[in-house]
Design brief:
It is an enzyme of class 4 (lyase). The protein has about 375 residues and is an alpha/beta fold. The chain contains 14 helices and eight strands.
């Protein structure tokens, strides 16, 4: 934390951005995976089963057994030695750098950007320290989940509030709930598919696979299922996809209770058996490639598709730190920054273009133009 003596009391409040993603192990080893899974799977937002029962399962079976199996999976996708070898970490760090550059180019002065993970390192508390040390007193929080779920978005926001709890002088906060229907985000997904098709040609079918959550959470009011379908529908409309040439499924379920359906691991072989020869798969809920996309989908489901008679399975990478994604996230941040941007230090032309940009972002925001209830519907 900054030494209070060094704190620039006289300056106006400075705005900063806190990007959040889930977190990932620091190494592809059973010990590091266990350290990562313990707080993750102990979070009541993630697992709502009765506590004594769940703690028995977690400490009796999952934590002793799952990390060893997962170590092989993580090793198959680890990019280089060290914590940045995790694809999720690699892409998240690139996103942080490029979003800072985008904001500088579009606003005309530096806006500090920090990255925190809901579980593990870099911690959200450390990210808040980093912002505070740069004089930030207004924090715009962006959990990198386009579709809101209590299990992901709310867990990230809980971690922010928990990290603020022991602090004395709290910053002002704005939080972004979701961006499932944000125009530039849908454009970035469409752009990514068009590029993929230009290189590989169109597949017979496009599967849009989202991380699943227990079905009970949806029945209890979690809007995630509807928001996934909204992203999918808008993407299909943008690409003018014919009815029946695309579908939605849900992946990565764990345990025996019903999760959101249809399940990707069942849909993929079914598609092969029903005559789909070439299958394109995109995962529009993942801001960065990770274990669940690269190992589960791109490796395991590919094998299942081929084993069931399919010819070619093409995974479309996550948006990661590609330019259209950075543009979309930059526009999204601008939409939430009006009134907060410290434009005084920017020179006049930059100031004008920053104002134009903010106005533009508002114009393109479907959530600002449609009533809240309509924006929620699929
Ligand atoms: C047990 C319940 C889980 C819920 C609910 C859940 C929701 C959820 N998860 C993501 C994003 C990611 N999950 C990732 C890995 C992962 N997820 C769970 C469990 C639940 N997720 C586990 C146990 C794991 C670890 C790996 C495994 O055991 O399969 C990851 C990848 C992390 C990485 O290191 O690469 C992401 C990303 C979302 C968006 C979400 C709800 C919408
Ligand atoms: Fe998950
Ligand atoms: Fe998984």
């Amino acid at each position: 934390m900054t030494d209070p003596i060094d704190r620039p009391h006289a300056d106006g409040p400075r705005t900063g951005v806190l990007l959040i993603n889930l977190g990932t192990p620091e190494a592809p080893t059973p010990a590091a995976i266990r350290r990562y899974l313990r707080p993750f799977l102990s979070d009541r937002r993630v697992v709502e089963l009765p506590r004594p029962l769940w703690l028995m399962v977690l400490y009796g079976f999952i934590l002793p057994l799952r990390p060893r199996k997962l170590a092989h999976s993580y090793q198959s996708i680890w990019m280089k030695p060290g914590p940045e070898g995790s694809p999720l970490m690699h892409h998240s760090l690139r996103q942080k750098t490029l979003i800072r550059e985008w904001l500088f180019a579009n606003i005309g002065h530096e806006v500090p950007v920090a990255l925190g993970m809901t579980y593990g390192e870099p911690s959200i508390s450390g990210a808040l320290d980093e912002l505070e040390s740069q004089g930030v007193r207004r924090v715009l929080v962006l959990p990198l989940y386009a579709q809101y779920s209590a299990t992901s978005t709310a867990a990230a926001l809980d971690a922010v509030f928990a990290a603020l709890k022991p602090r004395r002088w709290l910053p002002e906060l704005r939080t972004i709930n979701s961006y499932q229907d944000h125009g530039p985000f849908i454009d970035a997904l469409a752009d990514s598919l068009r590029k993929h098709w230009k290189i590989h040609g169109r597949g017979d079918h496009l599967l849009m696979s989202f991380h699943s959550i227990p079905r009970q959470y949806f029945l209890a009011g979690d809007p995630y299922f509807c928001q996934c379908h909204k992203t999918a529908r808008l993407l299909a409309e943008k690409l003018e996809l014919a009815e029946g040439s695309w579908s939605v499924s849900f992946q990565s379920r764990l345990g025996r209770q019903p999760w959101l359906q249809p399940y990707t691991d069942l849909v993929v072989p079914q598609l092969a058996r029903s005559g789909v020869r070439t299958l394109d798969v995109i995962c529009p809920g993942f801001a960065a490639d990770c274990l669940e996309t690269l190992e589960e989908v791109a490796l395991r489901y590919r094998d299942d598709f081929i084993a069931a008679g399919g010819a070619s399975f093409r995974y479309v990478p996550a948006l990661n730190a590609d330019a259209p994604h950075i543009e979309a996230l930059g526009q999204l941040l601008m939409q939430h920054l009006p009134g907060w941007l410290d434009l005084e230090s920017a020179d006049e032309p930059k100031r004008r273009s920053a104002r134009a940009q903010a106005a533009q972002a508002q114009l393109h925001s479907p959530t600002l133009l449609t009533p809240p209830r309509a924006a929620q519907s699929t």
